[in-house]
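Below is just one:
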Amino acid sequence: MTSSLSRSSPSTARLVEENLLTLAQLRSMVADLTPEGYRQAFGEHGRHTLGKHVRHIIDHYDALLDGLDRDAEVIDYEQRRRDEVLEQWPQQAASHLAGIEARLLSLGSGPSPDALSLGYPLDDDTLTLASSLNRELAFLTSHSIHHMAIIALLAEQSGIHLPETFGVHPSTLRHWQQASAEQASLSRWTA
């Protein structure tokens, strides 16, 4: 863990680390794509592309980090940039993801907000919900993994081979490791 993360709370540092691992995996995949593969349309109406899912993930991180940077009273994931460049050009998306990783690392260098408020639109009103940095970091990991699982399915249809662990939540990876260790232990007892 980096020195800046060591100054943050242990739980925040662990959540930042999960996000960093998730984003590094996504960035690695995106950096290897051609613009044509990144933009290839899927689905009955052609609305799904790898790039749109990547851009959507980026938008959510930017919404949180931009809100924290400007000390926003309310974090609002609905008011996203939706920068089409990031869904059209994989190298620019990979670069932006690297920037997000650097911004996440900086979360540990200063005081973290004790409480956050989250705007949640409901019909013609917006609810303001109590939240925290840790809760939002946990959300971003799960949200990103969800979209990465969709990306993995789309990539598979294009013949793009991804690691078995791509789009798998860290809790599932920990479960797999535990099950593998238990199986190895069991095998030693029966051998």
